[in-house]
Structures are given as C-alpha cells and as structure tokens.
Amino acid sequence: MWAYQLGEPQGVPQWRRVPVPPVGPGHALVRVTAAGLCHSDLTIMDLPPDRMHLSLPMTLGHECAGTVARVGEGVDPAWHGAPVAVFGPWGCGDCRACRAGEENYCVRSGTLYSSGKNLIRPPGGGVDGALAEYLLVPDVRHLVRADNLAPHVAAPLTDAGATAHHAVKQVIAALDDESVAVVIGLGGLGHLASQVLRALSRTTIVAVDTNRHVVERAQDSGAHYATSDADEAARLVHELTGGEGASAVLDFVCLPGTRDLILAVAGRRARVALVGLGGADLSMGFATVPSGLTATVTRWGSISDLAGIIELVRAGRVEPQVSAVAPALVEQAYAELRNGKVEGRTVVLMSDVAALEEGAAAG
Predict the structure, then answer these.
(1) CB within 8 Å of 66: residues ≥ 6 apart
(2) pLDDT value of residue 59
(3) Mean pLDDT in the chain?
(4) Is 2-160+301-362's fold the same as 162-297's?
(5) Less crowded by CB within 10 Å, the N or C end of the chain?
(6) How far is CA 85 from CA 32, 36, 169, 308, in A?
(7) Average pLDDT of the residues in 315-336
(8) Which residue pairs from 257-260 have beta carbons closer than 8 angstroms and sit at least 24 positions apart in sequence?
(9) Where are the domains of the chain?
(10) What's the mean pLDDT in 258-265?
(11) What pLDDT score was predicted for residue 114?
(12) Is pLDDT above 90 for 295?
C-alpha cells in the first residue's frame, strides 16, 4: 500500500510502498478514504534529532475517516464495511481517565515530546498514521460510526472537531444568555469552536483573528462580533458586559500576544481553555489574573466529544470548512498550511491514490 512517511528527523516526507499491516485479535483495519492535515504534523516534521522520540520511518496523519475493511478475532463482524471516524488519542483503557471515558488524558499515553519507551502513541504521533491506504486500529472502541457523512467532512472531526467540542465543554458551565465568550483564532479549530458555542449555548461570541479575511467571514463560523485588533476586542467585551469581562475565553493560538488578550478580556470567575500549540504560558497567582479565574490546558477531545461533534454536523448545526486535495498534492498542501494560507482544514482524499501508481510507473 502507499503511505506518506517521515523517514528521518527534519527530513522530507515521501510517499512509499509499504506492507499492509497484519490484523491481530481485537484489531480493525480501516481502508482510509480521507485523512486530515494538522499543524502538529508540521511540529513532528520539524523535531530535531535530540527531541525526536518517535520511531521512524512513520506514516504521518492522525485525522482519519474510512471504511472497516477487516476485523480481527473477537471483534463483532458487524463492524465490517462500516463507515467510521477514528478516535485518535488512544489510551490504555484501564487507568482512571480511560475508565471515565477520557482517553485523551490517559496516564500512559505519550505526547510528541515524551521519551518513555512503553508509552501509548496515537496514529501519526508514534505509530503509523492515516496518510496511507490502510490504518490499523488496535481496538474498535476507537471507532465512531460516520454514517451519512462525507469522508472529507468526517476526517477533520476526529481532531479539529473533537478538540473544539472538548474546549467548549470546559467553559460552557460559565455561560448564560448574559455572558460573553471570546474565541481567539478562527483557524481549523477555532471556526468549529465558535459554531459549537453557538449551537450549545446562548452566549454572545466575540471572535479575534489577525487574518482580516477570516474576520470578515466570522459570522459564518457562528460569531456575533469579530475583529482583528486586540484592543478593539477588549473594548468591545467590556462594552457588552458592562465592564464585567468575558465569562469564557478559548485560545486556539497560545502566543504571548493572545495571553495578553486573555488578561485584557477575562472577567472574574472566567473559565479559560488553552488549546493552541504556541506554548505561551499564563502565570496564575494572586493579583496576576482576575480572581476566580480557572484555566484548563486541553489535549484533543474524548470519544464522547467526537460523537458529539459528529451529531452536530449531521444536524447541520456545525459546518466544517474543508478543502480537499489529491495525495499527489500533499507536500504542497503542507507548505500552504505552514505558510498560513489555509482557512479551515485540508483533507487528503485517498480515493485518488491511483495517481501515485501512475506517477511511479511514469518515473
């Protein structure tokens, strides 16, 4: 089968022919129809040798939609042929977090920077991922049915959608019809989170993004107000709340500038979800943040978050912004993602993999 693999730290990923993985007891082999691209893929590509703790070569990609092609011993045969979305943050299934349905916080799972040898890794983040004709899933509990959803729509829901849904769940208890929620960054995750907020609450949504074109279209993503200027955002929030400040802030960027914006807009008792990969810290302490403020650093979403976002999309209450590309254009698509030229999410249609065969034959 074809797989898009990173062969060495900071190398250039390439399409390669690799064996189809064998199916063991409890496993499911998913024929990939669509695979989403993510900024964390770029983070993996950029890791220097001294920080690369993932086994290479490795197939990239962790957002997967497809059809169950084969199941292992002990798996209900009814899964065979089912259209599915693959839950990405695989856990051990036994720790307290996993038993609570939050495998995204499994104590035995590894991050991109974890160096432990026996950690459980997600697809495309330590084990072979979704940018391939087939993805081996170790347990069917990681599958969510995706009936009546186009694969290119379902794929980004497994990360971008589930993560956005999870972030909203962290703050929603603070929201009512008098509250204001601020969404920082309307990219691949933020444009979904704004819609989830609109679907699940009666809060007023203020969106902030440095991309003026994105701001102009913010109402399509559920926002009531939008701006590209941080000072204007702070003034607007304080006008809307009579000086009380926002009840919730969701930061999908997490750079020093957005940290400062959080402090400028958050009110007392605000709930803050830090989601972005920017790495800026938020110092917490007496008199450094509004009193009563609670901040959560999220990781991905739970299996219930994936099911939740799928239902919202099916119901037409959330509409992902997706651009589809052929496998032969994946390198170009990653370059556009790196250069900030992607709005929403980019998905690779693996049904077009035949073009790779033709290219290999011509070469």
Answers:
(1) 30, 31, 32, 33, 34, 83, 84, 86, 135, 151, 350
(2) 98
(3) 94
(4) no
(5) C
(6) 10, 11, 21, 12
(7) 96
(8) 257/230, 258/184, 258/185, 260/230
(9) 2-160+301-362, 162-297
(10) 95
(11) 66
(12) yes
**Predicted local confidence at residue 112, as pLDDT:** 67
Q: Residue 277 half-sphere exposure, CB side, CA atoms within 13 Å?
A: 16
Fold adopted by 162-297: Rossmann fold (3.40.50)
> Over 90: is that where the pLDDT of 356 sits?
no
pTM over 0.70: yes
pLDDT tens per residue across span 37-89: 999 999 999 999 999 989 999 999 999 999 999 999 999 999 999 999 999 99
* 3-class DSSP string for the chain: CEEEEECCCCCCCEEEECCCCCCCCCCEEEEEEEEECCHHHHHHHHCCHHHCCCCCCEECCCEEEEEEEEECCCCCHHHCCCEEEECCCCCCCCCHHHHCCCHHHCCCECCCCCCCCCCECCECCCECCCCECEEEECCHHHEEECCCCCHHHHHHHHHHHHHHHHHHHHHHHHCCCCCEEEEECCCCCHHHHHHHHHHHCCCEEEEECCCHHHHHCHHHHCCCEEECCHHHHHHHHHHHCCCCCEEEEEECCCCHHHHHHHHHHEEEEEEEEECCCCCCCCCCCCCCCCCCCEEEECCCCCHHHHHHHHHHHHCCCCCCCEEEECHHHHHHHHHHHHCCCCCCEEEEEHHHCHHHHHHHHHC
Question: Is 2-160+301-362 CATH 3.40.50.150?
Answer: no
Between 116 and 73, residue with greater pLDDT? 73
Exposure string of 173-198, with b = 16+ CB inside 10 Å and e = fewer, is ebbeeebbbbbbbbbbbbbbbbbbbb
How many residues in total does the chain contain? 363
**HSE-up (13 A, CA, CB side) for residue 235:** 6
- From residue 75, give the alpha-carbon distance in Å to each of 26, 141, 187: 5, 10, 38
pLDDT in the model for residue 138: 96
- In this prediction, residue 9 carries a pLDDT of 96
